[in-house]
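Record 1 of the preview.
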Amino acid sequence: MFQLIKKTLMLVVVAALAACDNSSIDNDEPVGSAGSSSSDSDFSLIKKPFDYQSLLVNYADNLILPTYQAFELALTQLDLDINAQCDALDAQSTAAEPDNNVRQALTEAVALWQQAELMWVGPVADNNNSLRNRIYSFATTAQADPCAIDIATVEHNQEAVALTTRANTVRGLDALEYLIYEPTLNTACSSAISQAASWNALSQIARQQQRCHLSQAVMQDLLASSRALNTAWSNDGANYRSLFINPNNAGPHLKALSDAIFYLEKEVKDTKLGTPLAQTALCVLDACPKAIEAPYAQNNGALITQNLKAFKAMFNGSAADGTNGIGFDDIIAYEGFAEINVALNAKIDAAITMAEQLNKPGLLVEQVNKQLNNKTQSQCKLESMNTANGESTPASYCALHGLIQAINLQMRTDFVTIVNVDLPVRAQSDND
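->
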């Protein structure tokens, strides 16, 4: 009887929260503030006999640290491939075809970082996500800028530049994407920018060589950032791990993990999909192609697939090898709501399946441009809403937006109520 009363009360709370929901989607918070969190939760409530320390150990040792370590290994391989490419370019006098080894190595490194994007806890989120933004600056106010990268390329050819003193506009994985994937080899700067004024007059091989040399500098900067992140967690470094798993810090660190996985709502649904598809207030047109992530590699389906898989792993506490450790789902089951785990995992799996179906280079660009030209923003909104409400629709980025919206609704109601955490500060103003 007590369990029935408990579940009934919980459903009343969830229903009340759901009543505040509507289908409009706004996002006025840049990614750069995603490390912030609310301090309103009553962490003194975490005194029940649930093993929170083992949960934190599982997240540290089986999810976060292995991802960071794998990312550093992937960067090491990418560095080797870029050095080999530069050596080959320096030895020839005619333009070369794109290096598939470099592109594949970059793809693998980016895939791992897209998983790490769901793990903004501790050192990576310190100082307003400073370390994260040096590694990947997408959707921040200082994200990679093509013209700034062109200027740095020219200056690096004249005298090696120290990227540690440069803004994030010329650093990180997104800067590498431009250097490796931009097809024309022409400058993105206007003719008024003197530093790049003579760039287009250079031979194609000279431009390839200079971009490759800056790629080497970007790689060294990335490796330094990755090593700093791993060192911060290691026993031989700042040993943040010991602080993270300390049972006295269980409340704040459970909240930090919860904040981290809301990346799926704010950064994936709103920033990666909502803004290009004109489903947030940041896009006032019928679509906004310039807001698309990875504008040169255009592998958006693959990036979002990695985000969704990482979200599923973080929700369930699952390691990369499939081992199922203690996670948020165990808290929910402990509280007597195992059916919530089943429903939420089903929604996640549906979103992953659709994202994989959309994993075709250039498809998001194609759909966004078509929406802009045909002025079909309202049709996209309807498709998203219908999909969020459980209707079967063909795979599209609008439909994927709706599938993720359905996940987010359950996160904002069932998840935060049962786990006993507040929404992240950056998500509290959202009126989904």
